[in-house]
Write a structure and sequence with these properties.
The chain has about 200 residues and is mostly beta strands. It has helices at about 1-20, 20-25, and strands spanning about 30-40, 60-70, 75-85, 90-105, 110-125, 135-150, 155-165, 170-175, 180-185, 190-200. It has a single domain, classed as Porin.
């Protein structure tokens, strides 16, 4: 996990440094937000339904995030998510993601953003390390959207939906609560919602 966190920071640090340079110094439109969320995701693995709240064992955990908006409608987002609670038989998933976002709608204090993130998805399946279980990391690309409501000049409430796509995942078969066999040979698509707060550290 520390290895992925280090890679994540190294990849995004140059972008952050560049965006804080001349434009913000001369009073540009760059802003920097950081915050946290609580996330609830359908892990896809061990679930017969792919709906956001369609799993009896929704994975739950914290998310740390930042948004670096380099123009009024364009920005960069990075996040780390640890879904370590409520999984069946110690199942967990984690994400380390970064990418771009675009503000599609502004209505009063409410902003609606669309985003595309890329990075790593990590999974430990139920009952690991027993036979038929696994622990691994996979490339993921993640379309999603964010609603952000500004409570004050510095503080915003936010809600996210993300649909993760792990195209190379191929795991051992599992069983639904009814005993039906579930094969995992066509990738993995965890998806879910997050709610939280962000704070503006830089910008107007």
């Amino acid at each position: 996990m520390l290895k992925w966190a280090g890679i994540f920071v190294l990849l995004l640090a140059p972008v952050a440094m560049r965006a804080q340079a001349p434009e913000s110094t001369v009073g540009g439109n760059s802003t920097f937000w950081a915050g946290g969320e609580i996330s609830s995701f359908n892990p896809d693995f061990s679930c017969s339904s792919s709906k956001p709240f369609g799993c009896p064992n929704q994975l739950v955990g914290p998310t740390a995030l930042f948004d670096l908006d380099v123009a009024p409608k364009w920005g960069v987002e990075g996040e780390a998510r640890w879904l370590h609670w409520n999984g069946p038989d110690k199942q967990i998933e984690s994400n380390y993601l970064g990418g771009g976002r675009y503000r599609a709608i502004r209505y009063g204090r409410l902003d609606a953003w669309v985003k595309m993130l890329f990075g790593a998805g990590l999974i430990t399946t139920p009952n690991y390390p027993e036979p038929g279980s696994l622990k691994g990391s996979y490339f993921a690309y993640v379309p999603g959207g964010t609603l952000q409501y500004r409570l004050t000049h510095r503080i915003s409430l936010r809600g996210d939906y993300e649909y993760e796509i792990w195209p190379s995942f191929a795991g051992p078969p599992s069983y639904s609560s009814s005993g039906a066999l579930i094969q995992h040979q066509d990738g993995l698509t965890p998806n879910g919602f997050s709610l939280g707060v962000s704070y503006r550290f830089l910008g107007q």
